[in-house]
Amino acid sequence: MREAVKRQVAIVTADAGLRGKPALAQLHESGFAAVAMGSAADLYRAWVGQLFDAVVVDVALPDEHGLTVVRHLRHLSRTGIVLLTGFGAKEGALEGLHAGADMCLPKPVDAALLTAALTRLAERLDPEPQPLARSWHFGADDWQLWAPNGRVAPLSFAERQVLRHLAASPEVPVSREQLLRLLETAEQEPRTARLDLLVHRLRRKVEQRTGFELPLTYMRGIGYLLDLEKAAPRAR
Fold first, then answer.
1. Are 28 and 46 spatial neighbours (Cβ–Cβ below 8 Å)?
2. pLDDT per residue over 71-130, tens digit each?
3. Of 89, 119, 158, 172, which has the maximum CB count within 10 A?
């Protein structure tokens, strides 16, 4: 039996209370693996190689306005977003929803309320299992990868870019150099993408979420080959 997968959550705030160990421990007990970050820059660095099921964004960050972060995240993915607005400001909540947030919570907010909000958001955003299929396929504008058993693995922006590129060439391996160039363009960042880490995390996530191995083969010295029509063996 597969272990329950904890939902990955980024808590982006300067609030020491929400970033402290007691708050993170409460989230952990409720099924969330929460990572605390103090700035938008911290989030963007983590975003390159990791998918978050939800992101909690404080409207007041030291380096970027929370609404700008929300708009950027919504442009990149379908990740659940909770915006922490000003102290009871109705206008802030409206702006947050228009920017793309799924929920807005007025500050101050404690760990119990945040946990309840994230739990409710997860229930609402979780896709229902699909009927059994003969092959792997994409869903939700290619932000999800569905396995033949009807279970789904959500994709980060970088993972989506890589898999779409590989799927467009099902019979011809794609070289590492091509994928690295693709990732550098997709991330719109000057740093080099860590392709090996991305592939490792993607394989692990797909097995955890679906129980199947990702049909991705690496041919040494040649490149990667993705065969979505391949029968999916059970994960070890």
1. no
2. 999 887 888 999 999 755 677 888 999 999 999 998 888 889 999 999 999 887 766 665
3. 158
